[in-house]
Structures are given as structure tokens and as C-alpha cells.
Amino acid sequence: MRKIIIILLSILLVNAIPSDINASTGWTIVINGSRHNRCSADMRSVSVKDDGDQWIIKLESWNNWKLSNCGDFVMMFLYINTSATRDFNDANYAITFMEIDGTMLIASMTLKGGRSLPFRRDFDANRSTGTITIKKSDLRAPDARFSLLFRIAEINREIEIAPPNRQMAIYRSTAKQPEAKLSISKGHFDFGTIPKDRNTTDSFDLINEGVGNIDVRLSSSSNIHINMSQITLGDFDRFTISLEINPRRLSARSYEETINIQSSDQNFEVTVKFTILPDPKLSVDKKVIDFGRIFRNERAVETVVISNENPGDIRVSISTDARWVTINRHGFTSNRGELQVSVNTERIPSNRQTGHVIIDSDGGSEKIVVHAEVIDSFLCLTEEIDFGSVDIDLKEEQTGRIAVQNTSDREVKVVAQTEANWINIKEREIMLSPLQTKQFEVGINFNHLKEPNKIYRDKIIVRSEHDTYEVHVSINLVQTPPELTWVSEVDEKKKIIREIYLGQTAEFIVEVKNTGSGLLEVTTSIENNKDRQFRMFTLPFSLKANESEEIIVRFDSSRRSPGTYQATLRIASNGGNMDIPMIVEVLENPTITIQLFIGRSTAYIEEKELQLDAPPYISRGTTMVPLRFIGEAFDAEVEWLPMGAGRIIVKLSDKTIRLDIGSTTAYIDDKAHTLSVAPEIRNGRTFVPVRFISEGFGAKVEWDAGLQRVTIVFTITPD
Question: Exposed, middle or buried, 266 (CB in 10 Å: 0-12/13-18/19+)?
Fold first, then answer.
């Protein structure tokens, strides 16, 4: 609706001209309307007055023309049918009334493609009567008659129509009509300058302003063509005369021509002035443009002036034969124009290039040669970085490098950028001296790589102010399954065998490792463990990639008999299982037989002969032997302490014997014992009672009086 209002208002400002209401005499009522209480714009009557060379149409309401009282978006229409039929469909004009902010606006337009009807108006929303004045020559009603229909409507709703039968009411004037009179709408044309290749046209109207026929004859000079040389105008008739100038057959100069109009009423002369321009002649101020050496994407612009050497416009079209040559316009029509020629070197090879700007016109053609030597600001020597397959759990440090080389004679700043958060660029900016080569170091941020068994791909943009490269980066992030592996320094892949003596403990240590990836969950158990002789000392555990753990199993023989004992160590995991047989051979403890002879410096350990530094002797029924021999025979630890006359400490396995020189009190593991003979020193040698020490270490002592021999049988208890 707002658009309609704006359009109608625009037409109103062009066609509506204010006037005064004429006297109340001479009116013919064409339409009477009944009172309609719902709308204050209710129509009372429509009257017409024949006023010389114009028609005056008067509209009267019962109250006033306040359309806003009738509803929203209410408009009023007066339809005019100049063929004077009663059929509404034959109406060829409509005058539209609307109210905006209390002001009544009026506009006129045709219904069937004719020209808008100019009129004068005197209308006020605060008065019940208003008039519209139309020239008879504009309305052109044959026989001075036409028909009218009045209508008030809202969008999608009709409020009132008159006559109510929807048949238009016919008006026929009884007044004497004006006599035929010829007039023209325009008597002078000045076309100014006309190009030689462009026909120029215009028109004017011949108008009969009265009743009766007018015969009209037209003639013109040969330089002007008109569409009609003879015509007859009827009552209030109008005819359009078109004129055309064809400059192609005219020479370049100024012309003043005439169109002569002769009629039975009066004569007219229409003057036509124009100037024919000479043929255009193309002028270009530059024939060669050389941009010299430029970086890729470096801006370089040259201005070329293109003009017509003669007066008037020249029609120019511009193109190039090289995609790297850019122009800011592809044509113009004027006397002079400027052309911007620039270089677009983004995707062309680095070498000397030659192209052309081609200028065609209706005044000739020219070709401008364009030279440019494109140079790289730098080269990226690396196209791709492939880190290959990397285990997500190992996350080994990965390093790649991008090599860049300055190929120019200027210092260049090169920047490396990426939108991938899993790509690390150690140093993002590098300054390159002329001909210098450097590298960007590229790593992996595994914190942003969460999904295993996936190939990650992205790119690094390496650019300077003038050149840009893409380096593609990829990594195959894998996660191998966990794998249980037995780590052993010796070949124990099938079973573990241990030999021990009675009283000893056998310890089985099995080290396992996760040689795969992921988390290895491990549980252990002992199968076929009769009487629970094998004991486990390892709880269930978990291993990450490359982690290891020791599994400890012990066997204690202190309460066992000699023989073979076995069980199976079962290791179960999500990376495989193992069954490891464990075998223990429990052996009898070995014995050593020692023989000593009274008075002899020769002794025997098993079958091996041993020389004593002093022979044994008997003191008050007790056999005394050198202390040094005791240490060697029992493989015991002997310690001499300078306490009192001297203290002797003898240690063997878990037994400790303490003796003091000259004292008959001795100790076995801090328990006091009384000796029959005290240890003594003789000839610089320390002698101790052999039976007390031997039996203190658990050995058996036998005496052969006939052979003067002491036999000691000692059972070895290994640690």
C-alpha cells in the first residue's frame, strides 16, 4: 500500500494543477447517489459542465471527503469511458482519490496503456464539493460525450458503487462545441551534437482543439525524415509526428532545418537545429608498458589516456590477450577516458612475460605491448611432511623441516602458519637474506590427537608478502594391541629349573613387558601347587607401552624332604597368556670329613692333604688345634680382637662362637659354655679346643685312641 501511495503521489505532482471552483450554473447531473451512513465520503452526485475548451467534473458528497472515516486504506475512483458506452470494461481513464494525514490527494492514470491524463483540481477533504478540470483536446470525447462510474473501495472490500447497477452513466453535452483549431505541442528542436553513426529521433503532436476536420500537409528538407506528409484531424483529434535525422549521409557541420506545416486552419514552421560530428579518430598516449622486474602479487599500475582526436565521443572497447594483464574497464563512450593497466602475477611462471592490451573503437584500433619480468620472492623446497605411523601411546617426538630459499636480491620475511592445533611450528617467522636458505622446524602436539588408527592431514601455509606455498602434513596415528612378553636374560622361554639344598629358598623372578601399545592388564596365579609349597608375591598389575614388571614366586625347602617339586606359573593378560613350569630339585646337604692326628702337622680334608703350621696336642684330655686350621677347614670367618689376653670370634653361617685366651668361659650365640681347657697361645700360635668349636657348628667329632686320630664329620648348610 505504501508503494501505491508513493506512486500515485508522484503522478499527482506531475499532472495535478490547482484551480478555482467555477460558478454553480451550467452543470448537468450525471450520477445521483443515495446516502450511505457508514462512510462520510458517501457520494451525493457527479455533475459535468461543458466550459468552452474544457470539461469540468464536479463531485459532491453528503458530508465531506474524509476517507479515513470509512476504514483503513480506503480509496475513491472516478472511471471515464470516452467511447460513451455503459460497459465498465471499456473505461480508459481512472481518477484516483486518497487521503493522507487529512489531505485529499488526486492522481489520474489510464487503465489500458494510454498516456496519463493531465488535469486541474480543486479538492479539499474538509469540503463536500470538489472539481476536476480536463481539456477537451486531452479527453478527446467523440461527439462531446462520455460515460462515468463512481466507486469507493477498501483492500479486498467494496464499500459503494454508483450507479449501483454497475453500468456507466452517459453524459452528452448540449452546448455548442468550439470550432476546429490546429495547434502543435512543440515548435523548436535543438539536438546539439550528433555522432555520425547514431540516428536521432524525436516527435511533436498535431492537435485539433475543436469540432470539425482539419487537413494538414507537412514537408521538410532532405536532411530530416518525417513519418507523415498529409493527415486529417477529426474532432479533438491528436496525431504524433516523428522526425528522424540520419547523420551517415551528412557531412560534419552545423545544420538549421525546418518542417513546414500547412493546414485549412493555419500554418506553422518547426525549426530543427543540430551539429554533425566528424568521424572519431583514436588516440592512445602509450604504445609500450614495461613494468620491469616485480615480485609475484606486487602491485604495478600504469595509466593510459585514450581519446578522440576529433570533437565528440568515441566508442571504445578494451581487452587483453594475457590473463596476467588486468584492466579496470572494458570500454567507454566519451571524448576521453583513462585506462588503468596492472599486473596480476599470482599464477604465472617466474620469467619475462609479454602481453597486449587491445583497443578497438569506431575511430580505429591500437595494441599496447605490456612487458613484465616476474620473480619469486622465495622458493619453498619442501612440498610435504609425512611423519608416517606413530603409536598413540609411545608419542615419540617427531620432527619435520620445511626448507625455504630466498631467490631474490632483497631481504624477505617468510611466515609459516597453520590452523591445525596438532601441528607445532617452532619458529613462525624467518628473515631471509638474499640467496639465503633456512628451515622451519615442525613438530607434533599429541595432546590434540585423540583418535587412534586415523590418518590426520592438514597443511602449513608458507608465505611472504608476494608468494604463497602449501606444505601438506600428515601423520598416521596408530594404536597396536597390548602384547605380553617374557623378558629373560637367559633362554628360559619354556620352563624354569632351580636346584637348592635342604633349608634353602628358591626364588623365581619372571619379568614381563608390554611390547605393544595400550594398557596391558595382568593377573597371575600358581597352578598345580600341591600343599601350597610355591608362594606368590605379586599382585595383579597394569603396564603401559614399554613398561615392565617382575613376578616373584618363592619355594622354601626348610620343611621339605629331598626330591623334585614343581608347579605352573600362569600369567593371564589382554595381550596374551603364558604358562611357565617351575621345577625345584631339593638336594641333601653335602658333608665334609676332616682328619687330624696328634703330634702330626699333616691333616686331611676329604682326600686333600693339608699342612698345619703347628701339630695338634692334648691338654688335660682336650685336643687343641691351631685356630688358623679351624678357619680353613670349616671355611669360617675368624676375627682376632685385642681385648684382654686376646679375643677370638669365629662365624659360620648363622653361628657365632666367642672365646677368650686363658678363659674357660666361651659363648655360642651369646650363650655361655664352660670349657675344660681354655684357649692358649703356644709358640706364637693360638690353639683352641677342636671338639667345642666343631660341635658348636653342628659337626660330629670321633676319637680313635689307637691311631691318635680326630675325625670331624661336618654337614654343610648352604646360605
Answer: exposed
